[in-house]
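Forwarding the complex inputs:
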Amino acid sequence: MTNTALEKRSKISTQIDLDKDGVQHGHLIIPHSRNDSPWGSLLMPLSVFKNGEGPTVLLTGGNHGDEYEGPIALIKLIQSLEIDKVKGRVIILPALNYPAVKAGTRLSPLDGGNMNRSFPGDADGTITQMIADFVQRFILTRVDAVVDIHAGGKIMSFLPTAVIHNLPDPDHMERTLAAARAFGAPNCLVLEELDAAGMLDTAVEEMGKIFISTELGGGGSNRPETVRIAETGIHDVLVHLGILDEAPKGPGKTRFLGTPAEAFVIADKTGLFEFTAELGERVEKGHIVARIYDLDNPTAAPAEYRAPCDGIVIHRHLMGQINRGDCLAVMGQETDNFS
Amino acid sequence: MTNTALEKRSKISTQIDLDKDGVQHGHLIIPHSRNDSPWGSLLMPLSVFKNGEGPTVLLTGGNHGDEYEGPIALIKLIQSLEIDKVKGRVIILPALNYPAVKAGTRLSPLDGGNMNRSFPGDADGTITQMIADFVQRFILTRVDAVVDIHAGGKIMSFLPTAVIHNLPDPDHMERTLAAARAFGAPNCLVLEELDAAGMLDTAVEEMGKIFISTELGGGGSNRPETVRIAETGIHDVLVHLGILDEAPKGPGKTRFLGTPAEAFVIADKTGLFEFTAELGERVEKGHIVARIYDLDNPTAAPAEYRAPCDGIVIHRHLMGQINRGDCLAVMGQETDNFS
Amino acid sequence: MTNTALEKRSKISTQIDLDKDGVQHGHLIIPHSRNDSPWGSLLMPLSVFKNGEGPTVLLTGGNHGDEYEGPIALIKLIQSLEIDKVKGRVIILPALNYPAVKAGTRLSPLDGGNMNRSFPGDADGTITQMIADFVQRFILTRVDAVVDIHAGGKIMSFLPTAVIHNLPDPDHMERTLAAARAFGAPNCLVLEELDAAGMLDTAVEEMGKIFISTELGGGGSNRPETVRIAETGIHDVLVHLGILDEAPKGPGKTRFLGTPAEAFVIADKTGLFEFTAELGERVEKGHIVARIYDLDNPTAAPAEYRAPCDGIVIHRHLMGQINRGDCLAVMGQETDNFS
Amino acid sequence: MTNTALEKRSKISTQIDLDKDGVQHGHLIIPHSRNDSPWGSLLMPLSVFKNGEGPTVLLTGGNHGDEYEGPIALIKLIQSLEIDKVKGRVIILPALNYPAVKAGTRLSPLDGGNMNRSFPGDADGTITQMIADFVQRFILTRVDAVVDIHAGGKIMSFLPTAVIHNLPDPDHMERTLAAARAFGAPNCLVLEELDAAGMLDTAVEEMGKIFISTELGGGGSNRPETVRIAETGIHDVLVHLGILDEAPKGPGKTRFLGTPAEAFVIADKTGLFEFTAELGERVEKGHIVARIYDLDNPTAAPAEYRAPCDGIVIHRHLMGQINRGDCLAVMGQETDNFS
Amino acid sequence: MTNTALEKRSKISTQIDLDKDGVQHGHLIIPHSRNDSPWGSLLMPLSVFKNGEGPTVLLTGGNHGDEYEGPIALIKLIQSLEIDKVKGRVIILPALNYPAVKAGTRLSPLDGGNMNRSFPGDADGTITQMIADFVQRFILTRVDAVVDIHAGGKIMSFLPTAVIHNLPDPDHMERTLAAARAFGAPNCLVLEELDAAGMLDTAVEEMGKIFISTELGGGGSNRPETVRIAETGIHDVLVHLGILDEAPKGPGKTRFLGTPAEAFVIADKTGLFEFTAELGERVEKGHIVARIYDLDNPTAAPAEYRAPCDGIVIHRHLMGQINRGDCLAVMGQETDNFS
Amino acid sequence: MTNTALEKRSKISTQIDLDKDGVQHGHLIIPHSRNDSPWGSLLMPLSVFKNGEGPTVLLTGGNHGDEYEGPIALIKLIQSLEIDKVKGRVIILPALNYPAVKAGTRLSPLDGGNMNRSFPGDADGTITQMIADFVQRFILTRVDAVVDIHAGGKIMSFLPTAVIHNLPDPDHMERTLAAARAFGAPNCLVLEELDAAGMLDTAVEEMGKIFISTELGGGGSNRPETVRIAETGIHDVLVHLGILDEAPKGPGKTRFLGTPAEAFVIADKTGLFEFTAELGERVEKGHIVARIYDLDNPTAAPAEYRAPCDGIVIHRHLMGQINRGDCLAVMGQETDNFS
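Prediction (whole assembly, six chains):
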C-alpha cells in the first residue's frame, strides 16, 4: 500500500491495496516477536470489496474478543457479498482485536489492551495500539461510515439494541439517526458517553462521520435472532448508504431509548449474584433487581439492589458471581425524541 | 460427630451433630495445608433442620462450581425453612464442591476434581475425594432421597429440565418418577447414562434411594424462571416426601423426554461457533443446527452440523468458540412412557 | 468533586466532597475493565474528617501492600476519631496502593507498579499511575502535612523508626523535625535519599510541605508495639499540628540516626541466609553480620558479610534465602545534629 | 548402596555407602524428567559421619522448605563435625524436602507434597513420596534417634521450643524425655497429636525410636538465638546419646508445656490481621489476642478473637492478612509432669 | 469395538474396528472434562490398514511430544500406504502422547505424564495412563511387532540410531536383531536399560514380541536425513515382517554400538554449557567434552567434563544452558556381537 | 563513573571506571524492586581492558538470551585476554540482555523486551530500556566499533555467517567491509534491513561507527565450530583494528551473500513442520523446502512451501511445529560486489 502523504510508517503491512477495484481477501501483517516465534507475525483478516465510485463503509467485529455476532455476520457477508451489486467500497475487519478474538477474551491476551479505549493508537506501541493506529490513519481516513458490532461478552447481557451517541452537530446527528433507523434493530440506545476517550466511536465521530454500534445479547454466545439482527442491519445500512443495490431486508421499527444519569447500578459486595428481573422487563423505581449472597455466611441477609428509576432493564450482569465495583444493571427509558 | 461404627476416620470434621433435633448451621472443616496457610482449613457450609421422626432428604447445589440455581435456591431455603413445619430431616449442602463454587469453575481449582465423577471418594485422597468420601459414608447412609441441582455451567445451556435415570428396579423407578413429577419442572429427561461411574447419582441409586437431578438453563448465570423452578421443585419434593407440612406450590405438568443413542452431536473442528436453532425448538433430522467457521480463512465454507434425528433441541454449546471434541447439541424426544 | 481549575480530568471519581465539613466515608472509584469485569471498578477506601478552618493532614498506609501497621492504625483511627475534636481536616487513605494491599504484595498485582516510585503519576497511565496522579493533583494540593506509614514488608525488617529527609531549606527542615519529634518513634532516621525520583516523599517535599515516613518492624506482620508506635505517632502529630484537640500520648524521646554512604551491604551470592546480629545491636566495623551458604555444596565455606562501619544494625534482610543483588543489612549511626 | 534384603527397588540411588566408616558427602540422586531436563535428576545433599560401633542418629532440616534453622545449623555441623570425636554414626539430611527448600516454600513445588504427611512414602509415587519411601526404608531402619528441626515457616511464628509427643510406652517416653532435656531448648511442648498420620514423627515413633522435633521462631527467617538453640540442641543430643565425645554446651533448663484441647484459635473471617499479644506473653482466658478488619468496610467493627483458656501464647499467625480457616493462635500451659 | 472378553471397560472408545479388513482413519475418543469443555473429548488419530491374514505391526510416533520424525514419517505413510500391497495389519498411532504432541512438549501438559514411564497404564487414571492402558490391553495384545520412533526432543541430540535391548531370550533377541538390521539405521544401540519400568518397550518385550525404537537427531527439529531414516526403516521393517509386498529401500549396513556402565556423564553445576566435541566424534577417555561457565562469575574457571571412556559421542545435551543433575553426554562403543 | 556532561542520570550505576587503564571486572548495577527483593538489583557482568591510547571496541553477546556463542566466546576472552597485548580499549558485555540470558529466552522475562528493538532506550523505562539507554549514552559514545554475536536462538537456525548492512556512505561501508573480511566467517550476509528501528546495529551505524553482527548456527545450542568462528572472528577484528598485538588466527575466505526482496518464506498454516532441504543447500526456484501437516487430519495433503528464487538456504525454522505467520526459510544469493 502506498501512502506517500503519511509522515510515519506503520510496522503493519498488507498485501491488499485498499484503493483497487475488485474483491481482495488478505491480512494485516503485524510483526510479533515471541520467544517461540522470533520472526513471527500475526495475520489479521481484512477483506475489501470495491466497485467504482461511491461511499466507503468500514464494518468491524471483534472489537472485544468475546462478542461473536460481529465476526460471524461479517464472515457470512465476506462469503456472500456480490461485487457486482456494490457501488463504492466495503472494508471488512471481522476481528478488530484479532489476538483477543483468537483467545475468546474481551481484552488482548498479548498486552491487556482494550481496543475500544486504544484510539487513535500508537505506531510504536503495543499490538493493540499498533492496530488502532493503522485503522485510524489508513482506514478511517478513507471511510464515510463505520458499523461496529458489539454484544455483551461473556460476563454481561443486553437487550438487543443499536447504539449511537447524542451528537452536538445536528446534521451529523441526523445522518447518524437515519443510518440507525436503517439498521433496524428492535431498540436503539442514544447515549451520552461518560468515558469516550479512546473509543473507536469517538475517533470516527470526531471526523464527522457516521458511526453505528450495537449491543446484541451477550454471554459470549450467539443466537439465531442476534446474528440475524446483525446481518440484516449491516445489509440495510449498506443499502441505505447507496453502496449495495438490493432491497432492504429489515421490516421493523426501532424503539428509541435513553439512559438517565442514575441508570447504572453498581455492586458494592462480592458474592453469589441472583438477578430478579428479566432483560426487557419494565420495572418501577425501587423494584428489587438483584441480590448478592455470601456463600460463607448463608444465614446472612443478602444485599438487595433496586431499580434507580422507572424504566426497562436493558443490561444485566450475567454471571452467578459478581465483584464489588461491577455494574449489575442498567435501566433505559423510552424517548420520542428520535422516532 | 460420633460415628463409632465407622472403620475409617475422615480428616473432615464438623461441629454439627447430624442426628440432633433442631436447626444447626455450621461447616465441614476440611484441613488444607497451603504455602500461605500452613495450618489452614476450608469451612464448607452445612445446614441441618431436624424435627422428630420422618424421612431424611439431602439437598445439594454446587456439585459443579459454575452452576448457580442450586446454591441460590438452597441459601434462600436455609433462610426461610421453618423447623416447626418439618417432620424428619433436611440436610443442605449448598456448595458440594466448595472450592469450585468459590472459584466459579466447574472443577475444583485445588485438584482439578470433577465432584460428579469422584464418588465414592477417598478419605486419604484430594480435597474433592475427601468431600465425596465424607458425603458417601456419613450423609448418604442417613438419607432417603437426594435432590441435586445442576445447570449448564458457563459453557453450555439446557432447556430447563429435571433429570432422572431409567432404573432397572420397577419400584425404585416408580418412587423416583413420583418424586420427579412432584418436582414439577417443565421437562423431565429420563436418561440412560453412558458414563455413570463416580457420579453422585450412581452412589445414591446403588443404595436404592430416590435421586432427582436437574439441568436448569446455563451460561454460568441464573434467571428468575430458573431459580423459581429450583425453589418450587425442592419445596414440592419436600412436601411429596412428607417432610414439609405445606401445600405444594407447583402448578405445572411435566413433559417427559428421552434421548436416542445418536442424539449427541460432536464438533470435529475448532473455531467460531454459530448456533442456528433455538433451545426448545422442534427440528427435523438433517436440519442444520450449527456451523463452525475458521476466522483465519474467512472465505472457507463453514463446517455444518445437522440434527441426527427428529426432536427437540434440549442442549446446546453456548460459547461463540468451540473446541474439536466438544458436544455441540443434544436432541430430546417426547415419550409417553412416564406421563 | 468540582475542580474547575484543573486542566485534565482524572478517570477516578469519588462521591466524597473533600472540601465539605463533616465526616465522610467513601471511595475513590477507579475504572478497571477486566475480562471478568468488563465494566468493573475498584473501590478504594477514603475517609475525610473536616471541621471548620485549620490545617489539613493526609494520612496514608499501604503505600506498599505488605506493610500492615499503616492500614491497621488508620482503620482504628477511622473508627475512633471524634469530629468534634478536629479543627481543620484529616484525609485518610488506609490503602494507598489498594490493589497491592488486597493482594498482600509490595507492588500492585495489576501493573507491577511501585506506588512509591510512581509520583507525580499519569491520568492516562496504569492503575498505580492513575492513583498517584489523583493524589498528586487533587489531594496533595490541599494538604499541609503527610504522614505515610511504612514497615519492612514481607522480606525485610527494620528497627522501628520514623524517617525524614535532610532538607536543604532550614525552615522546611525545622518544621519537619518538629513534626518528627512529635511523632515520637524510638528512632528517627534522617536520610539522604539516593533514588528519590517518583517517591510520595519527594512529591510532598517539593511543595515545601511536611512529610513524615516510618519503617516499623517488618516481616509482613505487625506486633502490639509497632501498631502502638503508629497510632501514638499519628495522634501526636495531629495534636502537634493543632488539628486534634487532645493531649499527646507519646512519652518518649526519639534517638536520631544517620546512615553513612557505605552503610548498605549488598549480597553478591544467592543462597541460604544466616543473619548473625540482632536488629538494634551495636557492632563494630568488620563484625560479621551475615553468611550465605550454598545448599548444593554444603561443604563449601559460606560467603561472609561484615559491617562496613561502626554503628547500629537498623535494617536486615529477613528471609532465610537471599538473592544476589539484595540489600542484606543497613547500619545507622547516632547523631546529635537533630536532638 | 547394596540392600540385598529389600524387596522393592527405589528409583533413588546414591554414591554414598551408609554403612562405611569415614566421612562421606554426596547426594541422593532422584530421577526427575522434565520438559527442559528430559534425563534430569535432583541431587539432594546427604552427609554421613561414621566411626566404629555406636548409636546412629539422623539429623534433618528442611522437612518444610521455608524453615531455615535446620538447614543452616546442619550445614554448619557438616563443616565442623570432627570424625575423630564421633563414636557411631551421624546421618545428615539438611534439606529433607529438597525441592521445597530450593524454592523456599513449605510444600514441594513439584507435586505440592507436604513431606511431613507423606510417610511411609511410595517408591512409585511423586518426588516427595519417593524421598519419604527412601528415608523410611533405607535410613530410619538404621537409626536409633532422629532430630528434626522445624520452625514457623513464612506465615507463622512460635516461641522457640522443642516438641515431643506424649508416648504411651513409659520407657519410650522416658528415653524421649531424656533426649529432649538434653536438647535444652527454652521450652518443650509435649503434644497429643491430632493428625499424626504421615508424619516423620509417627514413622520414627512407631519403630520405638527417639524422635525430637522443634519449632524455633518463624517468619521464614532466622536469628542468632534460634540458630544457636538448634546448634546447641543438636550438639548436646549427640553428646547425650554417646555419639559425640565432647562436653555439652547447653546451660539451660527447659520449661515443659502442654496444650489443652481448646487451645487452638481458628479465624472465621478473611481480612487484615492485628495480633494484640506478644509471643510468650501470659494471658488470661477471654483476653483479646487478635482482631480481623475488613479493609473494604473500614467503619465496620473488627472480629475479635479471645484466649480460649489461661496460658502462654506459644504460636501466632504472623502475616498481616489471614484467611478464613487459618489457625491464628495457640495457647500453652506449664506442666510439672515432665520436669 | 467389541471386546467381550475384557474384564474392565476403558473410558476411551473409537469408531474404528481394529479387526475389520480395509483402510480406516479415525480416532481414539478420550473423554476430557475441562472448565471450558465440560463434555469435551480428545480425538487422537488412529489409522488401521488390514488386508487378510498376516502379522500385525504397531507403528508409533509422539511417545514424547517434542520428537517429530515419528509423527511426520507416519502421516506420510498414512497418506501413501497402498492397502493392496499389505498382507496382515498395520496399526498407526502417529501421536501416542497426543496432548504432548499438540503442545510440543516431552510430557503431557494435562497431567505431566511421561508416556514412556506409564505402561501398563490405568483405565481410571490420568489421560496419559488411560491411553497407555488402552494401548496395553486393546492394541499390544493384537500385535507381533512395534516400531516406536523417538528422537532427542528439544533439549538433547543423538547420533541417528536404532535402539534395541539386550534381551535374555536368544530367540527373542534374534528376531529383534533381524528386525533392527532390516530397519537399517546408520547405528543401532543395544542397551541394558537401567530404568525399564513403565516403558512401552518393556510392555512389548514382556509379551515376547519384537520392539524397535530409535533416537534420530534432536533439538525438537527434523532434517531430510532423519525423516528419511524413519521412513525407510519403517518401510523395510514392514517388508521384513512380510506385511508389505515391496522391495526394501534401505541400502546401508548398520553399525552396532553398546554403552558401558560408566558412559553417562552427569552435570553437577548449573550454568552456560559449551560442548567441545561433535556428535559421532571418536574421542579418548579423558578428552574434555564439555565445560560449564558461571555467567555471574565470568572470571571463574569453568567446570570441565571429560569422556569417561574411549568411544564415540552418541548423545549430547543440546541447549546452551544446563541444570545440575542433567545428563550432558553419553559415549558408545562399537561391538561385533550383533553384526 | 563521572559523566559530568550528561544531562540525565541513569538509575544504573557501576563500580567500574570505563576510562581507567587496566583490567576491571565488575557489573552494571540495575535497581530492580520485586515483591521478593524489595531493594533488589541486577548485577550484569561488564569487563573492561584498557591500555593506553588506541581504538575502543565493544563486544556483546546475549543481545537475545537464547543465543550462546556470544556469551561463551566472550567469557573465554575475559579469561584469556592479556592486557599487555592490548592497545586501546576492549569493553565486554557478555550478556547484553542479562535477564533474558539468565532465563535462556530471546526476550527479557521481566518486561518482554527485545533488546535489539529497544535502542536508544529510556532511562525511566523498563529494565530492557534502561540497559539500552545506558549502553547508548555511556558506552556507544566511547567506541569505534561494535561486534555483536547472534545465533538462531532456540527456534531458528542459520548457516554460520557474519552480517553487515549495505550502508549508504561509501567510506563507512568500506570500513565495515574491511572489518567483516577480518572477522572471516565462512559467509557474510549484506542486508538491506526492513525493520531497523530500535536495533543496536542502527544505533551504532547512525554514529558512523563500524558494526559487525553474526548469525552462527542456532537451536539454542552451540557447537565447537560455531564457538570457534565467534572466537576467531572477534580475535581477528581486534587485530584488524590495531587493538590486539597478535597474529590473526583466521585462515578462511568469506563468501558474500545478499538476500533478494522475495527471499523470506512465511508460513500461513500452523502445524507439524517438515523441512525438506539442508541449510546451505543450493536449490532452484520452486523446489519444495518445507511442508506443514495437520496432525488432526492426517489424511489431508500438507501445505507445501517452495523456494521463491534460486539460491542457497541460509535460514530455516528449526522446530517441528510452526505457527501461522512464522518465517520458515530465507534464501541467500552469492554476490561478487563485496569480495
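The two ends of chain C are 43 Å apart (CA to CA).
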